[in-house]
Amino acid sequence: MTSGKASGYLTENLGLGALLTTAAFFCVALVGTLAKVSGQFTSTGVLLLLQNAICLVFLLPVAVKGGWRSLRTDKIGLHLLRAGSGTACWYALFFAIERIPLANATLLTYSAPLWMPLIAWAVTRQRVAAATWIGAGLGFAGVMLVLQPQGHGFSIGELSALAGALTLAVAMMTVRWLGATEPVTRILLYYFGLSTLLSIPIAIADWAPVPASAWPWLIGLGFAQLFSQILIAVAYRYASAEKLGPFIYTVIVFTAVIDWIVWDHAPTLSTYLGMVLVIGGGVMAMRARARVPAQRT
């Protein structure tokens, strides 16, 4: 690994990175929960816009305190990719959780680490370890157990959650690429600023009024999203996305517990088995991916 001063990364600390990632995805579980509640008051498009705008409002004073010069970047393309993929992911997840149980929507969306090694291969054309393919196969078998398409096909909510998984994989990898040169505050400001702009036409097309009773939930949603993004960006400065990828699965456990307690959606046996396969396959794929560079040196 190159030095932190040269690359923007800090000295690798997988334990701290794992702790930060777990805390981040607890916040993500809260985002899904609060979005499901807030979705009863307004539309998905408005929910997406307000989530990003609230985060931007709270972050902007902190970001500009360092001066506008500190916000200059030569990575605008990566920032746009990050914002576009992140916006698409959150819209897909919010759309899904209004139509299928929260735990199922989260499990399908956060199968993203299964896609990350494949996307990395498509971009870099580096060899993919056999264990990566095996792990991905196990994970996708788990996805099919949760979907159970026999007899009824895929619902629009399930398809939306899977689309969210693909865009989330791109977003996670982009955060790591940006972390090589960009400070956390700059990454977050560009993300929330660009995502707010991208969300405006979606909200206009999907407009619905926001009652006063919804604002406490929406503000809580914004704070949960802001903290999740801060923690993720900091975590990826301590370890790579491939190494921290398995810890993303804590969000599935957190969400399943919340879904059970709040909405009385007890996981079925097939959901339990699917969770085991998705988590186990994802961990295998991520670890195999992380070992490939070491084998080549």
From TrEMBL:
Residues 16-147, 156-284 form the EamA domain. Pfam families: EamA (PF00892). It is found in: Membrane. It comes from the Bacteria. Keywords: Membrane, Transmembrane, Transmembrane helix. InterPro entries: EamA_dom, EmrE-like. Its main location: membrane. The keyword Membrane applies. It is a multi-pass membrane protein. Coiled coil: none annotated. The keyword Plastid does not apply. Signal peptide: none annotated. The chain crosses the membrane at residues 14-35, 41-64, 76-97, 103-123, 130-148, 154-175, 187-208, 214-235, 247-263, 269-286. Belongs to the EamA transporter family. This is DMT family transporter.
